[in-house]
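pasting for the record
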Amino acid sequence: MKRKILLVTLLALLASVSAFPQKVSQSYVIGFYNLENLFDTVHDEGKNDYQYLPDGQNQWTEAKYRKKLQNMATVIRAMKEENKRWHTVLGVSEIENRHVLEDLVSQPEILAANFQIVHYDGPDRRGVDCAFLYRPSEFQLIESLTIPFTFYGVALNSPMTPEERKNFRTRDVLMVRGTIAGEMFAFYVAHLPSRLGGKGGDLRARGAEIIYEHAQRFEKRFPGIKIVVMGDMNDDPFNDSMSLFLHGRKTREEMEESDFYNPYWAMLEAGYGSNAYRGVWSIFDQELVNYNLAHAPEGTLQLLPLIQRRRQTFYGRVFSKPFMTVQEGPYKGTPFRTFSGGTFIGGYSDHYPTYIIVGK
């Protein structure tokens, strides 16, 4: 009986792991990782980083900071080991400044990747930004810019007063454009407004609308451009921000040319998750691709299948390993985070990273 249970468990694990494409001549890993409050130990003027100082609430010492850097690098290295290649591009969120990124890409575990950095200081009151890491041997940078949050879209029906709107600050969206294997790509990296207190649904919808409108302008300006929207959306694929205002679709077959394909919608329904709250799993960490990538012409870079499970094909990957996961106690099976109940526990992040692979 025990042997039978072991065999069933083994088969289930094999069915759920990444089946990296073998019959392609070129392939590139495109991913996103919420690094969960990657702060250094020095105060940045104008940022509310006081709890991440040696004498702050978290007693954020140099030793804890170095442990956090090593942990993040360990996860990125583990993804490289699984895929047999580094990420071509990796969007990240919840980073304090360029300094922490420079420290991260210099970690011995990932130094060989030669990641370069795109980052702008943003207006978020907590002091966290989005950023973009890339390998210049595979991605050739053309331009980058930040897209601020504004209140002028149709998605917003907020009860906020004019004064509250004036004082509202959130993360900018980062846009990076360049080429992979000679083909033009645009990447949008986002960390949409928080769900804290059960609020912000209309703000996330507006954030998604901002991205969509910019992407539509790019598609007109650069016919054939391939676009990836990635980030911690603080919403699931079926929520209005993703499905209505970003025009995310569950399947490639139901897409129109103005839509995005969200591979994580079907994965969420199949039981995958990148983050958990009070026992409920979500996939807030997503990569969505435009029609030009989801239905790429033959011989050009296209979205590749990654997982075969129960006769379903999935085009995304939620990357989790036992060392990134709580192994016992009330939070068993969820992401092993940096702090728990205000106590430093030396974990990784409260989110698992996700990625897609394109190739031809």
